[in-house]
Amino acid sequence: MDETADSGRRNFLGWFLGTSTGALLVSVFYPVLRFISPPQVPEAATNQVEAGSTHDPELLERGFKIVRFGAEPVILIRVAETEFRAFAATCTHLDCIVEFRKDVGKIWCNCHDGQYDLEGRNVAGPPPRPLTPYQVHVVDKGSGQPGTLVVAKG
Amino acid sequence: MKGKPKQLFAWLDDRLALAPMRELAAHKTVPVHRDTVFYYFGGMTLFFFLVQVVTGILLMLYYRPSAEEAFESVEFIMTTVPFGWLVRSLHSWSANLMVYFAVVHLASVFFMKAYRPPREITWITGCLLLFLLLGFGFSGYLLPWNQLAFFATKVGTDIAESVPLIGEWALRFLRGGDRVTGGTLSRFYGWHVAILPALTAVLLGVHLVLVQIQGMSVPPWRQAEADRRRPMKFIPHFALRDLFGWVLALGMLAALAALLPWELGEKADPFAPAYKDIRPEWYFVFLFETLKLVPGGEIAGLEYEAIPILLSGLAAVLLVLVPFLDRGVTRRGRSGGFTTAGVLALVYMVGMTAWGYRSWLPVLLVAATAVLVVVVALGTRQPEERSGA
Question: A48-153 sits in which CATH class?
Fold first, then answer.
């Protein structure tokens, strides 16, 4: 056996060992990487939700309430006696849930003092984008009964 | 040693080769000079870490990591389990004291230039250990599943989204989905009790072995004094002084845990607005305040809020690389630029923390740290004439 043949065989075996080690590592780490990335779980699409009475005591007292819109929080604000507005309640800055401050007439995020006006526009503080608006419908019950609020995708 | 202990030692020695280790311990010395006091803070940090291991294991006996049960199980620990309030309070207080002492330790090592060759790896493992401690703090903060923790986690994980390219994946990876839910709690629990402890054990092992191999570093400006004075023997003189630091640490911890038990707050509600004065743990407050100052907007597709986040990431990388950046200290024995940068960074951090709390308390704590250093210095004093005695 001469040396060239020997080194050729050695190279071949080395290459073989290298690629199979590589393949082994890939077959171990690929499933691990996929496993630690959470799967996308489909959620039932929500198009509208009932948000209680127009005379909800919480709404009257604080001027707003947080409504569950599927898995997302939506802020429902009583702007005037018969005027209601709704926006995504998730602050566009760092994901906190906003509230409505009657005293300053603004939507306010307590985490980093982000401020939005009643159109949902980011007017002061760190938020980079406006809040997504939702539609609010008042379903009239008639005969002087308080209506029912319905929040729907904008 | 006589009789039975001697026989036992001989038996173990035959199997583990203990004699060389005993020899090494007997000959180990620690340099003595005016800054020797700063050698005790790493040991005190280690003490709090050991308290965390013990109290953490105890808490695991009752804690249940799910959105439905976590808050109630911590409530049960605090109200029904005998001494449960104490164990949980010790765990919370010790966690905070550990971060605080780790920072004091890091600052003293930094200003004493102990990262000089050949101790670069000790410095790097130390920095990584501090980052792990912050990871412990961040993941542990969520576990009681209270309102404060819930929002801190929302904000903290949302910050990960600012990282270019992998941001979105990182956010979902941390949260275990798109939102902070019970799935996030499971993940954080896994990090807190398995992954981080395993990483910490390895890094801490390397860190401590390196300290043993290389011994204590003497700052260049104390070298003459250290050469003149007789070093102290590790056993018993330094070990007993270390013990003094541990007793002091235990005293502080016990007093705080017993007199100011850690609060639980209200259960997390994903559909409640964040309440006023919401804040992360104190060691993140300076970052949190910095984020408040940055207005909304975009530049070249990068949101403004990402800028301070990326800069703090850069600062962390620079901190790890200090031994390789600071060339002056090896050549000239000093590096004023690094000292100044360190002082400015500390002033910024303390200042922003004080601003965040609208209180002078953080500044007072810095003064208290100075008092603490004096107490440790007095407690571990090594009179010159009796040095090495």
Answer: mainly beta
